[in-house]
Amino acid sequence: MKKYYPALLIPILSCLHAQTAMSAATPSQPTVMDEVVVTASRTAETKKQVSANLTVVNREEIEQSPSRNVADLLAEKGLGHIQKYPGNLTSIGIRGFRTDTHGNDLQGKVLILLDGRRAGTGNVAKLMTKNVQRIEVIRGPGAVQYGSAGMGGVVNIITRQGKLNSAFVEAGGGGFDTGEGSIGGTVNQNGFDFAGSYTYRTEGDYDTGSGDRFENTGNNYETGISANLGYSFSDTNRLGVIFTGFDADDAGDPGYFSNPDLDNTTDKDNYSIDTRYNGGTDNDQYQWMVRYFFGKDENTWKSPTASNASGWDTGIDSSNKTDQQGAQAQVTGTFDIATFTAGFDWLDYDVENTWTPTKTTYTNPALFLLGKTSFADDAVTANIGLRYDWYEVEVKEPAGRDEDQNRLTPQFGLAWMVTDELKLRAQYAEAFTMPSADQLAADFTSFGTRTVGNPDLDPEKSNTYEGGVDFEHKSLTASLTYFYTDFEDKITTDYLADGSATWKNLGDATIAGFEGEISYDVGEPMGWTWEVRPYLGMTILTKYEDDQTGEDLLYVSGTNLSAGLVVNNGAGAFVRFNVAYAGKQDVNDWESGTYPTPVVELDSSTVADLVASYRFLESDTYGAFTLRGEVRNLFDEEYAYVKGYPMPGINWFLGLRWDY
Fold first, then answer.
1. What's 27's DSSP letter?
2. What CA–CA distance (Å, rounded) separates 471 from 422?
3. Domain coverage including residue 398
4. How far apart are CA 103 and CA 354, in angstroms?
5. What CA–CA distance (Å, rounded) separates 15 from 351?
6. How many domains in the chain?
7. Contact assessment for residue 87 and residue 101, using Cβ atoms and an 8 Å cutoff
8. Predicted pLDDT at 14
9. Which uninterrupted H or E stretch holds 624?
10. CA distance 620 to 509
11. What is the pLDDT of residues 555-599, one digit of tens each?
12. What share of the chain is helix, strand, coil (3-state, %, to 5)?
């Protein structure tokens, strides 16, 4: 297995200036409408121009959270349903759709990006937050910008870029034999910039909210590394490289709590290297970007027969591996009344499994055109987009066929700044998920049954209509969105007349509901020097129904809420209390061992976290020292995101951080 060492950062951190100044900052006031975002149009624009429902998790929120990875961070935000297992495996859902956690992210229905390109995985437990500057979430379709899988939403994880010279070291430990250490820093000097971090973490088996030990849930170790390195040879031209890596070895993989396997483990790995050139003219009329990236996502499951609680252990490891490479090229031109971005995307995936089919390939070139224009004294912005994707897939082992398909995707939206504080928006967008290689092109026999791909399959697709309102006044920010989605042509298994297994398009669904966010710093009108900010986020689905059966969709929570309070002096001292509520959902009871699998109800959960930080020493000579304490699952809730896999009960963590 790969190992990532903090020594990789030492040569860079040694370049830091010893004279770096430290200064206390007062809590910043919200400027939501003027905030610059990039995910909705693939270029920098202010949030007031965006017609989609866009949620931004900024650096301050990330630092105040007890979460170490994107999975746990988004679970706190109440965006949608979560599926989380022991062994570093988490899928996140938005608007009734979710990520695909194993291998090819073209097959998911929520898309994960790293700095605007595919992360190569839908398992968001592999994506650490230590070196993340911000996360932008498009709630709803993002296919016109990014292609297949952007159906329920797009999550863009944007890494830090060095803006000053700094360094940090932190370490701590807590309950369930948890230990953690991190090192990192930033550099900005003579056109050279760097931001990076390395984290090592280990933890033992945990107790559930009921006080029972869940055996074999510990993690021998996990490491995460992120480095963003660049050189700017003018104000508008930068050449950069981003490296991201994750490695977890011998993480417990116990199966169901009712009968845990005591020796099964899993290894999870992901890495990517991204080279990018951003340029532009001095007057910013034209901007361009060219990038090439490659990486690997790998999962291994080890199943010794000594315990064999499930009865399926063979003593043989199983695994899947996806080698990814891709390129992007785009140019943006700003003219008198309109801005256009035209570009080309290319993806190539090689997927290897220990199960059938063992080798498949995916090639996906695409062309896109995104435009926006403003009128009525720039109060109204119209956004329009078109994307054309070509797909070629092949099943190589066992030898099958190669097939190709294509897809045209449109999107149109309006954003109207009624006043400087109030924005109305509306949007229509289509999205899709392409069929997999085996669904289109397989031809093999396994366990006596022949499986044949169906080249006439259509992509799974959706049509979404939404409207919303955003409001900002001084320290108050609020938004409310209603959406309605038709989901069509779901791909399901089928059988031919000769008994061969295949796939067909059969199944539609309707998903509709409300999304809302509100926060208000009550300290601002009171003239307090501290920020005192209560907040609330919600997703309430009014309908999530299979159109054929009339039943609620499985694995979808009708209500997700996130609420809390932040008290912050902006100088290293804060307290954050957060409560995340996930509503009940209908799920398959695979734990029952019966077939057909019964549908049961998974209970709702309410999980509270408390984080407090205090900077007790600050000096220009010695830097700043901060003590941090965390309590996860404060009220010791007994809960599970997946039936049969209860999550940890109350847990604490205490850490010390040095900044310079």
1. P
2. 5
3. 6-20+27-659
4. 13
5. 41
6. 1
7. no
8. 40
9. strand 623-632
10. 60
11. 999 999 999 999 999 889 999 999 999 999 999 999 888 888 999
12. 5, 60, 35
